Target: RNA helicase
Amino acid sequence: MEFVVIWSGLANIFFFCTRERVSTMRTSWADLAASSAAENVAAGSANNCGAGTTTAPGRSAYVPPHLRNRPASSDPPAAANSGPAVGSDRSGHVGSRWGGGPRNDYNRSGYSGGSRGGSGWGGSRGGGWDRGRGDREVNPFGDEEDTEEAFGEQENTGINFDAYEDIPVETSGENVPPPVNTFAEIDLGEALNQNIRRCKYVKPTPVQRHAIPISLAGRDLMACAQTGSGKTAAFCFPIISGIMKGQSMPRPARGARTVYPLALILSPTRELSMQIHEEARKFSYQTGVRVVVAYGGAPINLQLRDLERGVDILVATPGRLVDLLERAKVSLQMIRYLALDEADRMLDMGFEPQIRKIVEQMDMPPPGVRQTMLFSATFPREIQRLASDFLSSYIFLAVGRVGSSTDLIAQRVEFVHESDKRSHLLDLLHAQRANGVQGKQSLTLVFVETKKGADALEHWLCLNGFPATTIHGDRTQQEREQALRSFRSGNTPILVATDVAARGLDIPHVAHVVNFDLPNDIDDYVHRIGRTGRAGKTGLATAFFNENNTSIARSLADLMHESNQEVPDWLLRFAARSAYSGGRNRRSGGGRFGSRDYRRDSSFNRGGSDYYSGGSNNNNNSGGGYGGVSGGYGGGGGYGGSGVTSAWD
DNA sequence: AAAAAAT
Model:
């Protein structure tokens, strides 16, 4: 039968302390600014703010595009860093668990060690891409000599582990492998260990501590972890390591131009795919494992050429991948690892058919043969149900407190009428500027609802002396990438974005996320604010709320409450009003503990209503719904039920 | 109702 384990540094009290604030984490704007290290400006060239809409007073810091210099070191976009940890870790290898899972044997069976080398494969894996062709692997760390100093942005490589110390973790499923405390405990292989050192990761983040052993044991995984907590490495390390350790076998020779990746990583936006690709390239440097990215909006020919040079790990957005599959440029029949990042988004209405096509209707090995890993910060139970089609005897892992937003993000909500939003935003920006909290070291990300709205606001901000740019789906891919570069580098310290930028993007120095227009879905809110407060750093999120946002009032109030945020009385009144009048979102209920394994509360719910069910209870009752204490859930009935909200109703 | 994702 299934059993549940709760890992926590403070296991027996985590339930009762979820309301405590980690006080050392809390910081003011000024502190935020001060703690942001100088960022070297890189990308020059135009953002759409400059030339056309030039104007205005007070833009002292703003340098028009044609005057911007372009520093010599233009190479590494990869230097954009994310992820955790500094320092080094020993390389000791402890007992190897390799080949432990049935799936690890998959690649050994049959062909074992086939030396047919149809495509330069014999023996050394890596598709022969850097052998025999004279190709040289570009150093993704962007440092020519030694890695030590070139990566000098210490500040943003350091994850604040204190912030994660007492984080509650829930796992469920059969035979859950225990977590590890150091990278050294895991046998990832020397090449990968060296890259971990180059990335200055000292020790694994909580999600990594748990997810990596699970994956290495060959198990399928559904993982729910806070934004900014190191998920990418959590699924990349086992994949890379597994590919290195696996016997290489010849790819089928069919269609000389068809390539056969061993791992597939899917993500919902092009920019996120790019980011994952860059990370994965760093992790696989000099391992012989080759990572290729494919996404729409960019010339397919370049991507095809890249693929033909060999691919072990393919990172892609769904549309472009389907295209490649239909052209028979890519076959999935050798896939051993499948990872879906932002998995709940990948399986929601817009994406599900495409994902099903890729995963179920092409030539990918079925669950149980391949290994599947799903990651997201939010995991609605309905989506969990869909996702279970892709998994085999999987382990559910939830890391982090309430709703995957963190105490690291100070959330504010302000009542702002629609007509006042612009001037209110301007007030905020002026205040930031006055505090010195704005500019290259301190970025502001503004979310709006529509693409047109994004353009309009960007233009207006520029007119008013605040250099801004915008990213949304109506812009060309070039423009999107340019906007992101310009924002990242601080040349344009304000980015107006639609939800295309809501998920996954790791942009250091985002100090402030403004929800100019609130989303209708609380999960989208969680992802949006997760663009700040990353890698253990603090951040600020401000939301403009008005009568158009009543549908999110309840879940927003719940979320803020559970994240130890002050909830304004007026918001509680909106929440109370909409609570029973159907203010429920398409798929979510409200209260939350990130998520819990839907397999575990199926017995509790009758209509499959709310995936978080116990969520709002968790912090309120001390009965502890987790350790399987009976009644933890039943009482109060989650949402729209009775008695749940008594603490602050 | 909107956004994203192939051409």
Remarks:
- The longest strand of chain A covers residues 409-415.
- Chain A is about 30% helix and 10% strand.
- Chain A has a mean pLDDT of 72.
